[in-house]
Design goal:
The protein is mainly β. Helix content is 7%, strand content 41%. It is built from 2 helices and 9 strands; from the N terminus they run βββαβββαβββ. Strands 1, 2, 3, 4, 5, 6, 7, 8 and 9 form a 9-stranded mixed β-sheet that branches.
């Protein structure tokens, strides 16, 4: 098993009302998506391990839509502070702005943890062969991530959950 990891550490602030920790599986590397992501012209994609630019994930925002069914880059409700590749999963962690977005925190408390997933947002993606039935991404820059229902995600093996208070971030498999 190969493990690559990056993190930005913020000072611990006990019971901070606006830092609600989360972790999730953002996507898979070297595996074809289950369905076509937005912007892929109806094609499934493979994000190669080489293209998975972890440094570009750090500090990027997490967003959501009220129906948990897509992306809204203007509804940034949190930040990514850690990104790891563990096996074929890109595992991320960070925090949601719980006080600023109480609806996100409340919805996650009500949702079955098994139903929530994630989706990545990219820029500057390079496709090995635009004519291929499945696009292979050989280069990309992450620009953010979305929390959504797992069934709406291009990769069904993604996940999202709020962490219990006081629990430290760490690599975990979904």
């Amino acid at each position: 098993m190969e493990l690559r990891a990056m993190a930005v550490r913020f000072p611990e602030v006990a019971s901070h009302p606006n830092r609600v920790a989360f972790d999730g599986v953002l996507t898979l590397v070297d595996v074809a998506s289950d369905r076509a992501p937005s912007g892929a012209r109806g094609r499934r994609v493979i994000l190669t391990r080489a293209a998975a630019a972890l440094p570009s994930l750090l500090g990027m925002a997490v967003d959501y839509t009220p129906n948990w069914d897509g992306h809204d880059a203007r509804t940034k409700c949190g930040v990514i502070t850690e990104a790891d590749i563990c096996g074929n999963q890109i595992v991320i962690a960070g925090f949601i702005y719980g006080r600023d977005f109480p609806e996100v925190q409340q919805a996650m408390a009500k949702e079955d943890a098994g139903t929530m997933g994630m989706s990545y947002e990219l820029a500057d993606a390079h496709v090995a062969d635009m004519r291929a039935s499945v696009w292979t991404l050989t280069k990309a820059t992450f620009t953010g991530a979305a929390i959504l229902q797992r069934e709406k995600a291009a990769y069904r093996e993604t996940s999202f959950r709020l962490r219990a208070l006081g629990k430290k971030a760490g690599v975990r498999a979904a």
